[in-house]
């Protein structure tokens, strides 16, 4: 068609053919541009519907959080933060679309002139200077990369790992291989450089759709994780329910084992036990009432929850048995099976089934400690002390018992230099400023010792008796004449126990040795 000599008529035909082909290409281009515009409108409309659905889902989560803050409160707070981050990102994208379309006049239905938006120079000039990204281009790319990282940081373990990977994939920006270029291109170059403006706007609208889908997935995941946890067998535990809570010797023990679920995040609105309201706690409620007469008694009531704006009541059914009166005392030492001379050894003394005001305990040095069953025993001389207990039963008869405890002296403490027990070493200057102290490690009572006197001995020099807990001028003078490797011995350490009114005599305090370095 282009070879050889052509007549003027043939040249005109060829020219018209080229014009025709160009017009066809132009019309196809306009159709593609219009298709992008229509697609963009559909995405924007879908985003609006997703916003409405997300708000409804969040309202449900907020309602659950108000009813069960322990189970849903933290999840609601995380979703609130994720929705805030998502809105900020979506608003940023919307501002970009507004900026690049402000010079185009919309029709009466609010549609942009899609067929006129065939150039890519507005986005190209905004995102690139030559081959380098502008600050706006870098910000656009950074926001895409940072969004899933923000979601992961806020959601933490509340977002399942597969779900988080799906979100990260959705906003992936790794290089893309271009068959046209025959090489890998930066993600932003591959997706935005040289594209018609309407195509770029549609891609930005799709990014907004991805943000809203992510928000929807996170909210659904929060509900799903609670449902999975509730349905998981690990949430259940076998519960032994005896036919009654007390049995007599020789009687058959009967009952059943059921699967129950204990959820510490589930707190009831109210709990009624035997007609009385009791405090609801995490996953449970504690009750207390008078046992009543000997025999079997019922426990009735209900757990009441708010669900969907209505009160759901779960009935309570149980029983217990009141056993006959006890005939033996219960005596225990709170620390161990011995008591220490000079200390107020705490003890618990009670009779099963007898109130504290009907129990009388006696022993040398025994006194009440202020609360039911609590006593202090401060023994004196001797090696043993006997605690005698008498309890009065409801029928006015008495039961009694006794227990013997060994009496031990408080063991001697160990000397310490600067808090270090036993042998130590260091410079003379450190010893000159260190405090001489005494400690009693691994003792049942937390006692504080104060050093009142000690003897200071440097090899080859006279021993020095020091009053107090720090070396004096004589000690420093003796130290000045000591050499490296000399071992200073601090012994005959006198102590007193701080905070105890009695003048308690302890065992001999162990010496401490300090080697000069």
Report on the structure:
- With 517 residues, the chain is an alpha+beta fold.
- Helix content is 36%, strand content 29%.
- The protein has helices spanning 8-67, 69-101, 121-127, 135-155, 161-170, 187-192, 197-231, 428-433, 473-480; strands at 128-129, 132-133, 176-178, 183-185, 236-242, 255-261, 270-273, 276-278, 280-281, 284-285, 295-307, 310-322, 329-333, 338-340, 345-351, 359-362, 366-368, 374-377, 384-392, 398-408, 414-417, 420-421, 424-426, 436-439, 448-457, 464-467, 487-498, 512-516.
- The strands form 9 sheets. The chain has a 5-stranded mixed beta sheet with strand order 23-28-27-25-26. Strands 8-7-11-12 form a 4-stranded antiparallel beta sheet, with no helix packed on it. It has a 4-stranded antiparallel beta sheet with strand order 13-15-18-17, with no helix packed on it.
- Helix 1 runs antiparallel to helix 2 and helix 1 (8-67) packs parallel to helix 7.
- The termini are far apart.
- Residues 17-28 and 227-236 have low confidence and may be disordered.
Largest sheet report:
5 strands, mixed
Straight-line N-to-C gap: 107 Å
The low-pLDDT segments are 17-28, 227-236
Spatial order of the strands forming the largest sheet? 23-28-27-25-26
Give the overall average pLDDT: 79
- C-alpha Rg (nearest Å): 43 Å
Helix content: 25-40%
Q: What is the 3D shape?
A: flat
SSE-based structural type: alpha+beta
Individual helix count = 9
The tally of strands reads: 28
User: What percentage of the residues does DSSP assign to strands (E)?
Assistant: 25-35%
